[in-house]
Amino acid sequence: MVIIVNLDVMLAKRKMSVTELSGKLGITMANVSILKNGKAKAIKFSTLEKICEVLDCQPGDILDYKKND
Fold first, then answer.
1. Where is the HTH cro/C1-type domain (predicted)?
2. C-alpha closest to that of 6 among 49, 35, 26
3. How far apart are CA 28 and CA 53, in angstroms?
4. Radius of gyration of the chain from Cα atoms?
5. Are 2 and 69 in contact (CB under 8 A)?
6. Cβ distance 58 to 64 under 8 Å?
7. 2-66 homologous superfamily
8. E strands, 9-69, where?
9. In angstroms, rounded to a whole number, what is the distance separating the alpha carbons of residues 57 and 52?
């Protein structure tokens, strides 16, 4: 099972930088970059909620599930 993080896609659609998102979320740019690059092992629901609020999207717009073949 693979969870794909499409945060970079949503940032591009919203024309928002990692720096701007970081400031609006109140978390470090390093942590936003970890999420954006798919390197995160977990995400808190409260963080996911804030991301969805700031980017005006649904969790499914950011996270995608791919089954291993």
1. 13-62
2. 35
3. 17
4. 12
5. no
6. no
7. lambda repressor-like DNA-binding domains (1.10.260.40)
8. 63-66
9. 5
Q: Nearest Cα to 27, choosing from 14, 46, 42?
A: 46
- Supply 59's token pair: 């969790």
If DSSP codes are grouped into helix, strand and coil, which group holds residue 2? strand
Of 1-5, 23-27, 44-48, the one with minimum mean pLDDT is: 1-5
42 token code pair: 């977990």
Q: How many CB atoms lie within 10 A of CB 26?
A: 8
> What are the distances in angstroms from CA 1 to CA 4, 8, 40?
10, 21, 15
| Tokens coding 68 | 């291993």
List pLDDT tens digits, range 26-45.
999 999 999 999 899 999 99
To which residue do tokens 């609006």 refer? 24
